[in-house]
Design brief:
The protein is built from 16 helices and twelve strands. The chain has 398 residues and is of the alpha/beta class.
């Protein structure tokens, strides 16, 4: 919520919109009165009205169904008491809550389906649901209904737009005249203003890597992320240049990541693995030379916009990535900000690292591309505000 929800909400408030936010939190969250009070105070100061309901996890399908009913009930009550013009639903389950609440309400605000990713395909690609199984089939029926009910859409990538709404690329509207926006995962560039040559030198001295090539990775390991391939890539980089230093910033399983590096012969002086908050990411990345992003290439990831890419570019880092992930191929090829790996083998890694040697001097260019593609205010906030304006102008007949 802190990096990919609230920043957009604040941008919408700047556009004169009054925001009421509903989130689902783990049930024990209610025990942390001070934390809840602190967050509520912050949101109140930003003119964001915040409500939350408990999130349930046991008995997955039944728990989700229960949360949908409770969420729809809350939204239905809110529609009775408040003048709401737009129900902005982020991903499928909240969209179902909003659609059900509106269906049984006398008021008919517009429904904005912020699709984000191909959720159902993510479950099948990850092996959580069998492709063609009853959960997938029911989910697709619900998804089709939500697409019919919605009045506007957000997707993360042009690749997703091409699959779902190809006719909207030249006009910004689908066949039914509903607005469609492509809004990638953006970052607040003010967080990265400190990143300069002087600051970079300070951080490299602090980390003891003044004369070393630093490869950086931010994000999770396991799941969609090709952890073993990344470890192998780092190992090949060290074989080519023994002074290579690896920087990994991840929120979970740091001990497992450390062990993975040691198993490949890395000494503790050859890497840093840390769990840091968003505010510290620019500090660490400012010391790096090249960034890395390996994600499982599958159908659902055509809709993916990794936030780490925006952070890398904001810090002036060229990107080494595998192909077929959202709009990453076009981002790197069209803007010349990195290297694409098509062959996840030792030879493929050697070729990518060789090409990476020629990416020096791109720091300012990478920052410019990051600003043009992923700036929270001009790209993310601007497109959301435009979408809200278009929805407010549209007459809905349901």
């Amino acid at each position: 919520m802190q990096t990919q929800v609230l920043p957009y909400m604040r941008e919408l408030v700047k556009g004169g919109n009054k925001i009421s936010l509903l989130t689902f939190e783990p049930a024990p969250f209610s025990k942390y009165g001070q934390e809840e009070a602190r967050l509520r105070e912050v949101l109140d100061s930003q003119k964001i009205e915040w409500h939350w309901l408990p999130y349930h996890k046991r008995f997955s399908v039944l728990a989700t169904a229960w949360d949908v009913v409770q969420g729809a009930r809350f939204v239905w009550r809110k529609l009775r008491t408040d003048e709401i013009e737009i129900l902005h639903a982020r991903v499928h389950v909240p969209a179902l809550m909003a659609a059900l609440a509106r269906k049984f309400s006398g008021k008919k605000p517009k429904l904005l389906f912020d699709i984000r990713g191909f959720m159902l395909e993510e479950y099948t690609d990850a092996g959580v649901w069998p492709e063609g199984g009853w959960l997938y089939r029911v989910g697709k029926r619900i998804e089709r209904w939500l697409m019919e009910q919605s009045d506007g859409f957000v997707v993360l990538t042009e690749a997703a737009r091409e699959i779902l709404f190809p006719e909207s690329k030249p006009t910004g509207f689908d066949r039914q005249g509903r607005p469609v926006e492509v809004i990638p995962c953006c970052v607040d560039l003010s967080r990265f203003e400190k990143v300069s040559d002087e600051y970079r030198d300070q951080m490299r001295t602090r980390l003891g890597v003044e004369d070393r090539k630093v490869l950086a990775y931010v994000g999770s390991f396991g799941g969609w992320y090709l952890s073993d391939e990344m470890m192998d890539f780092f190992s090949v980089a060290r074989d080519l240049d023994p002074k290579t230093f690896v920087m990994i910033l991840t929120q979970r399983d740091t001990a497992k990541v450390v062990q993975g590096l040691k198993d490949r012969g890395f000494e503790e002086s050859d890497f840093v693995v840390d769990s840091v908050g968003p505010e510290s990411v620019p500090d660490y990345l400012s010391a790096a030379d090249v960034s890395v992003s390996f994600i499982k290439p599958c159908y659902s990831k055509l809709s993916s916009s990794p936030t780490k890419l925006a952070e890398y570019l904001a810090c002036g880092l060229p990107i080494i990535s595998n192909t077929k992930i959202g709009d990453v191929d076009a981002l790197i090829q069209d803007n010349g900000v990195g290297v694409l790996i098509t062959d996840l083998t030792v030879q493929g890694y050697i070729e990518a690292l060789d090409k990476g040697e020629h990416l020096g001097g791109l720091r300012e260019h990478c920052k410019t591309v990051g600003r043009n593609e992923f700036d929270l205010q001009s790209v993310g906030g601007g497109r959301y505000r435009r979408l809200y304006e278009r929805l407010s102008e549209r007459v809905v007949h349901k």
